[in-house]
């Protein structure tokens, strides 16, 4: 399998190394920045291109991994799918719901498949949770507390992360998207009936922004406006009665947390996003009424990114539609994000926008 990477920064290099570890070949890379092309070509022995068009036309490329800023997911993914290539596009699916729908429409008409990079569902902690859930250990799942909170972790102004035209949003689209996907995945992607949320832009607009961990850069030199959200609180209701509470932030005055708590009728579970450990929370009456917590430690060599890329390469090799990280799931996540933004703007709960094929066709026309 010959893989091409579009976007040769840190994420592109990570995917490239994963492909090699799983026995694939990195035959091409594309990036508008010459230095990145030169470095990538030397490290992976790949041909490099300034634009994705050249990479897609390369006969040695069987599948494409897209790791560019969000706005460029659509033109690259659509071009690759129209060429019949398989695609793995990093999260979120796109910078807007409309753009995500157009990718979904292209995938429906293509001989290629499209997976979306929600790697946390493949971490060891989630794999162990899935196994015990399949055994019925938790009973009926009722609620997920989903946290992806940085105390201070705003990407510096002037980066594409804080440019609404390139990113489409701020903390919600960058890290909140991971928490939403993992929560819905944990619950089995039930039908979402109502979304209520509030996004805030509080810290990134301050001239004196404390960044103790040096997470961002360009704070002192950038004159770029900061127009994206840096925190979000949301509540999601599903048709089966299950619910999700979401806290996501680049910056907020509370301790950092990537804690997930899943409640079930028979037991609960807690774990950190992307971690290797899982705690099962139960009670008992043997001897006396008591709490019974079981701590599980998974294989640290299992990482979400590595397992996700393995699933993608398997789909490319076999031609079998993937059963995970599907474009339908990613489109649902994008709909939830869109509903949160609409709820914040209107001050009222919102339903998901209609994702029907007819609506997609109308937009394409």
TrEMBL record:
Record Gene3D superfamilies: Dihydrodipicolinate Reductase, domain 2, NAD(P)-binding Rossmann-like Domain
Chain positions covered by the region annotation Disordered: 345-365
Key word Transit peptide present: no
Protein name: Oxidoreductase
GO MF annotation list: nucleotide binding; oxidoreductase activity
One Pfam family it belongs to: GFO_IDH_MocA
Keyword Oxidoreductase annotated: yes
UniProt domain GFO/IDH/MocA-like oxidoreductase: residue ranges: 135-268
Highest taxon of source: Archaea
């Amino acid at each position: 399998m010959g893989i091409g990477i579009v976007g040769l920064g840190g994420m592109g290099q990570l995917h490239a190394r994963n492909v090699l570890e799983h026995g694939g070949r990195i035959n091409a890379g594309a990036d508008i920045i010459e230095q990145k092309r030169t470095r990538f070509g030397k490290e992976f022995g790949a041909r490099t291109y300034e634009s994705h068009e050249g990479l897609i036309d390369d006969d040695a490329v069987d599948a494409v991994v897209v790791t560019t800023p969000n706005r460029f997911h659509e033109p690259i993914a659509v071009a690759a799918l129209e060429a019949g290539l398989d695609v793995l596009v990093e999260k979120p699916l796109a910078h807007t719901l409309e753009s995500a729908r157009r990718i979904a429409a292209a995938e429906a008409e293509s001989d290629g498949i499209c997976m979306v990079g929600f790697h946390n569902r493949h971490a060891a902690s989630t794999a162990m949770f899935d196994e015990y859930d399949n055994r019925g250990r938790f009973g009926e799942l009722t609620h997920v507390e989903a946290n992806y909170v940085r105390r201070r972790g705003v990407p510096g102004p002037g980066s594409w992360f804080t440019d609404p035209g390139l990113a489409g949003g701020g903390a919600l689209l960058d890290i909140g998207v991971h928490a939403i996907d993992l929560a819905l995945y944990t619950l089995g992607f039930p039908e979402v009936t109502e979304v209520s949320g509030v996004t805030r832009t509080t810290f990134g607009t301050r001239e004196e922004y404390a960044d103790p961990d040096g997470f961002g850069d360009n704070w002192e030199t950038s004159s770029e406006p900061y127009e994206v959200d840096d925190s979000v609180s949301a509540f999601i209701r599903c048709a089966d009665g299950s619910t999700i509470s979401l806290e996501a932030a680049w910056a907020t005055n509370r301790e950092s947390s990537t804690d997930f708590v899943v409640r079930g009728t028979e037991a609960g579970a807690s774990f950190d996003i992307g971690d290797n450990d899982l705690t099962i929370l139960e009670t008992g009456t043997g001897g006396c009424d008591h709490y019974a917590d079981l701590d599980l430690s998974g294989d640290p060599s299992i990482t979400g990114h590595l397992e996700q890329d393995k699933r993608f390469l398997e789909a490319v090799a076999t031609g079998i539609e993937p059963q995970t990280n599907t474009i339908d799931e990613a489109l649902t996540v994008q709909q939830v994000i869109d509903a949160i933004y609409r709820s914040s703007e209107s001050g009222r709960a919102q339903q998901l926008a209609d994702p029907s094929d007819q609506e997609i066709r109308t937009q394409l026309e």
